[in-house]
Design a protein that fits this description.
Radius of gyration of chain B: 13 Å
Order of helices and strands of chain A: EEEEEEEEEEE
Oligomer: heterodimer
Largest sheet of chain A: 6 strands, mixed
Number of strands of chain B: 11
Number of helices of chain B: 0
Helix content of chain B: under 10%
Distance between the termini of chain B: 37 Å
Distance between the termini of chain A: 41 Å
């Protein structure tokens, strides 16, 4: 079965500092991986996705993620945090075993930005 | 292009009651998935509809049911509501039922069961 594990339920960084949100996946087939962001009282917005093309994926709002097969990781980074980045971030994998295109989400990481 | 919309935004129900949530898929999308997001957790897959038929189901009891209409909009029905059903319910649409196709999420419906 495919799954994702997010390390750290809460990450706090200073404005302008590097953002690093960790995600490890489990999959016996090449996975389709995603990062979603959820702002308070809103739905999910896709930040970026990995679909077996380039291992370094660039997304919206300056975020990027690197697929590392040897480490089964897909960590999300942003060089310089902005106050508007404060939100909940979810790593997810598309369940390619299922007849339904369901997405399996991690438990989320809440990102706080200190002024 | 209109995105995924959901109604209502919020609602409050009493334990034992029934509720219907609605979702309009993005233009051109024929697949709708429903997810339940409990407070502080990631979304959990409930089921998916493809061309008006259920195409897969997560680990939810039969009192969670759904419909998809010819225009590909969808309903989620929950009978005999329990307190644990309190959650944000998210609808997502995609242009194909295969896992390689991107899903677009709506803003969700916040259900509170008292």
């Amino acid at each position: 079965a495919q799954s994702v594990t997010q390390l750290g339920s809460h990450v706090s960084v200073s404005e302008g500092a590097l953002v690093l949100l960790r995600c490890n996946y489990s999959s016996s087939v090449p996975p389709y991986l995603f990062w979603y962001v959820q702002y308070p009282n809103q739905g999910l917005q896709l930040l970026l996705k990995y679909t077996s093309a380039a291992t370094l994926v660039k997304g919206i709002n300056g975020f990027e993620a690197e697929f590392k097969k040897s480490e089964t990781s897909f960590h999300l980074t942003k060089p310089s945090a902005h106050m508007s980045d404060a939100a909940e971030y979810f790593c997810a994998v598309s369940d390619l075993y299922s007849s339904a295109s369901k997405i399996i989400f991690g438990s989320g990481t809440r990102l706080s930005i200190r002024p | 292009e209109t995105g995924v919309t959901q109604s209502p935004t919020h609602l409050i129900k009493t334990r034992g009651q029934q509720v219907t949530l609605r979702c309009s898929s993005q233009s051109g999308h024929n697949t709708v998935s429903w997810y339940q997001q409990a407070l502080g957790q990631g979304p959990q897959f409930i089921f998916q509809y493809y061309r008006e038929e259920e195409n897969g189901r997560g680990n939810f009891p039969p009192r969670f049911s759904g419909l998809q209409f010819p225009n590909y909009s969808s309903e989620l029905n929950v009978n005999a509501l329990e307190l644990d059903d309190s959650a944000l319910y998210l609808c997502a649409s995609s242009s194909n039922r295969q896992g390689t196709y991107e899903q677009y999420f709506g803003p969700g419906t916040r259900l509170t069961v008292t």
